[in-house]
Amino acid sequence: MKLLFDFFPIILFFVSYYQAHFLIDNTFIGQLIDPAKPDFIAATIVATGAAIVASFIQVGIHWFNTHKFERMHIFSLVLITVLGSITIFLGNPAFIQWKPTVLNWLFAGVFLGSMHVGEKPIIQRMMGEHIELPENVWKTLNLSWVTFFFISGAANLYVAFYYNVGAEAAARMDTWVNFKLFGLMGLTIAFVILQAVYLSRHISEDDMKKDTNNNGDN
């Protein structure tokens, strides 16, 4: 459920992009869109506006339920508001296409920097209260997140600006919108599963060591 909640703005972006014609024809949104703009540009503007609203809703719901702000949601909100607004006003999809890359590389930098600033990697600060792991495992886990964020950002950049460059602009935009939801979500799910397998192995080993020590004391 949390994964779907984190992807809520992306899901709404996807739905709004492909339902843009309906929204333009049947809601007040049509009065805000220049009819002279190409269809895919109009759809991008509608979807970007929906994603910005969804991001504010996401942050509001999380605060209402926990009375806390999650940093990932805040960073995403700031980026999508700034880059999305530029896309809307200029009618240029490139700015909103940069958003996933900027966000992922920002997190990669934060996770990498945490290994050199402070006593613990950021992943240990986030999860250390719930599980106990050796220091080298925490470092490996933190570096795996750095790698994941970097690869996700690079993949988005490639699909947005370098993949199938000979195709029409509308087709390339459709490809990126599909990748933004299914590709990035697929990468995230695959990484979470691999991380769970890695953690389960080390947690099991730690539990076995604890049981052995307890039996020895008895």
Question: What key phrases describe this protein's structure?
Answer:
single chain; elongated; disordered C terminus; 218 residues; 2 domains
Rg over C-alpha atoms, rounded to the nearest angstrom: 21 Å
Biggest sheet record = none
Structural class: mainly alpha
Count of DSSP-assigned helices: 9
Poorly predicted regions are 205-216
Number of strands: 0
Proportion in helices: over 70%
Alpha-carbon distance between the two ends: 43 Å
Average pLDDT, rounded to a whole number, is 89
What is the number of domains? 2
Strand percentage:
under 5%
Q: Give the H and E element order.
A: HHHHHHHHH
Shape: elongated
Commentary on this structure:
It is built from 9 helices and no strands. By secondary structure, it is mainly alpha-helical. The longest helix is centred in the last third of the chain and has 49 residues, at 169-217. It is elongated, with a radius of gyration of 21 Å.
Task: Reconstruct the topology from this structure.
Elements: H1 2-6, H2 8-18, H3 20-26, H4 39-66, H5 71-90, H6 94-113, H7 122-127, H8 135-161, H9 169-217
Helix pairs in contact: 2-4, 2-9, 3-4, 4-5, 5-6, 6-8, 8-9
